[in-house]
Amino acid sequence: MLIKNLDCCSEKSVIVLPSGEKLCKQHFTDYFENKVFKTIRQFDLIDKEENLDVALSGGKDSLTVLHILNKLSKQNPKIKINAIAIDEGIQNYRDKTLQKAIDFCQKNNVNLHIFSYKEEFGLTLDEMLKILDVKPCTICGIFRRYLLNKKSRELKITKLATGHNLDDECQSILMNQLKNNIEASARLGPKVGIMQDSKFVQRIKPLYLCTEKEVTTYAFINGLLDDFAECPNAPQSFRAQVRDMLNDLEQKFPGTKYSIVNSFLQILPLLKQQFKYESIKICEKCSEPSANEICNACKYLEKLKNSIVEVG
Ligand code: SF4
Ligand code: ZN
Questions:
Q1: 18 contacts 258 by C-beta, under 8 angstroms
Q2: CA nearest to 204, candidates 29, 42, 32
Q3: Beta strand 79-87 with 50-55: parallel, antiparallel or unpaired?
Q4: Mean of pLDDT over the chain
Q5: CB of 136 closer than 6 A to ligand 1?
Q6: What is the C-alpha R_g of the chain?
Q7: Measured between alpha carbons, how far is 181 from 187 in angstroms, rounded to an integer?
Q8: Residue 159: per-residue pLDDT
Q9: For the segment 260-309, what is each residue's pLDDT rounded down to a tens digit?
Q10: Mutate to test the pocket of ligand 1, among 137, 146, 168 (most ligand atoms within 8 A of CB)
Q11: Is 141 in the pocket of ligand 1 (CB under 6 A)?
Q12: CB atoms within 10 A of CB 249
């Protein structure tokens, strides 16, 4: 029987793609970077002149997106790159990943701004979770998105790039389906949000079509990361359950994740049209953009304040 040789060259392979093709370090690096640049062009993510922020956590995804956009910036000096990190205050986790973010930015000469929940809201996430009976990721995500948008806008950033990959998007699509929250899906896609507004900094996802496996491989072989750190709150999240389910399906039926995202991309323009608001509301308390009279961040801050008063 003739077995087709799927190796890219005589070098040792570092990854096997869903097509069965095996790529060595150099060929995979080229393949991955081309895929990201193609995504940027295909979805028109970056203009000729930009003052970009990369939301940097110090994990593999955000370091990868910063590394690649930094390369792009060297080829196009009109595209400026900065990084923004949020310190939620998660003991034994965020301090370590933040150090990686700081080291990377120092080594690569990238401007890094760090903002913390403690300084901005008076409490760390760990402290908030001792007061409120809420799912950690719910409250963490609300405050992080709030700060990323507010601080990026104040820093006059034109777009905020995040490290979301194909696996993340798949999980979000499915989570929204399972929670019957289609409006949240309308905000997904490589360019986040339903409509543009000067109060919102446009968020973009250059790793949109790259799988978690590809991002991890790229980060490791390019020396961006040498170990894994997972948030201690992650395993109890709904996202973790959906992730495991999708990984199981992908293993049994390769290509499942691509199919989910590709079919979603076909209906996304209709979803965005369906949920287009007349105008974006402004939170009565903090003047930040909001879907309701009071934004979610202010709602939770009020709950925290009331709980502290009750206990006190
Ligand atoms: Fe926050 Fe949840 Fe992410 Fe941990 S896993 S950083 S709690 S959103
Ligand atoms: Zn508010």
A1: yes
A2: 42
A3: parallel
A4: 92
A5: yes
A6: 20
A7: 11
A8: 96
A9: 999 999 999 999 998 886 567 899 999 999 988 999 999 999 999 988 76
A10: 137
A11: yes
A12: 14
Nearest to 153 by CA among 48, 289, 59: 289
The atom of ligand 1 lying closest to the CA of 231 is 4
Please state the atom number of ligand 1 nearest to the C-alpha of residue 136.
Answer: 7
- How many other C-beta atoms can be found within 10 angstroms of the C-beta atom of residue 16? 13
Give 90 Cα–ligand 1 centroid separation in angstroms. Answer: 9
Residue with tokens 């209906």: 267
**CB distance 134 to ligand 1 below 6 Å:** no
> Global pTM?
0.93
Residue 293 CA, ligand 2 centroid: distance in Å: 8
Taking ligand 2, which is a single-atom ion, which protein residues have CB atoms under 5 Å away? 283, 285-286, 295, 298
Q: What is the pLDDT of residues 41-73, one digit of tens each?
A: 999 999 999 999 999 998 999 999 999 999 999
Q: pLDDT grade, residue 5 (50/70/90)?
A: low
